[in-house]
Design goal:
Number of strands: 8
Protein name: Bifunctional nuclease family protein
Organism: Adlercreutzia equolifaciens subsp. celatus DSM 18785
Helix content: 25-40%
CATH superfamily: Bifunctional nuclease domain
CATH architecture: Roll
Strand order of the largest sheet: 6-5-4-7-1-2-3-8
GO molecular function, one term: nuclease activity
Order of helices and strands: EEEHHEEEHEHEH
Largest sheet: 8 strands, mixed
Pfam families: BFN_dom
Shape: globular
CATH topology: Bifunctional nuclease domain
Number of domains: 1
Length: 170
């Protein structure tokens, strides 16, 4: 299994899917970095965004309620693993720890990631899934030129969900 981190979350408009971009935490030679884009709905994007920004509301949201239930059952999220893909649909396991045993739950990656982020649990992807579903990511460090930033913005402006498969399968 390869450890993952959230590289970015691109939140689209109300009726458009958003994209969660994951990246392996592995050390890679220059020009060999990879990313895994996962298309998600607006509600899932909002939940992940709130987890990334540590946003808390006066009343619990659905994922907060789930974590509260787990806590009251003396369980904790151990990790999240993306274990498979079919086309552009991904499959994940949410691994819980309770009383010294591990419990594996089938989950959508977006839900599993939103929950794992809230408990600072690690994110993983199976190596075969990473190899099959990742794209090269060229990053030259922290100093991008205006030209490089403009080229990336143009890429984002012209990318569409159809480039990655059918979001309706989710």
């Amino acid at each position: 299994m390869v450890p993952l981190k959230v590289l970015t979350l691109v939140v689209a408009g109300q009726n458009q899917p958003s994209v969660l971009v994951l990246q392996p935490e592995e050390e890679t030679p220059a020009g060999k970095a990879r990313i895994v884009p996962i298309w998600i709905g607006p509600t899932e994007a909002a939940q992940i965004g709130m987890a990334l920004e540590h946003v808390k509301f006066a009343r619990p949201m659905t994922h907060d309620l789930m974590l509260d239930a787990l806590t009251n059952l003396d369980a904790r999220i151990d990790s999240m693993v993306i274990y498979g893909s079919k086309g552009q649909m991904f499959f994940a396991h949410l691994i819980l720890s309770q009383g010294g045993r591990l419990i594996t739950l089938d989950a959508r990656p977006s839900d599993a990631i939103a929950l794992a982020l809230r408990q600072d649990a690690p994110l993983y992807i199976e190596e075969a899934v990473l190899d099959a579903s990742s794209f090269p990511f060229l990053f030259k460090g922290e100093k991008q030129t205006e030209e490089e930033l403009a080229a990336f913005k143009t890429f984002l402006d012209h990318i569409s969900p159809e480039d990655f498969g059918d979001i309706e399968q989710l």
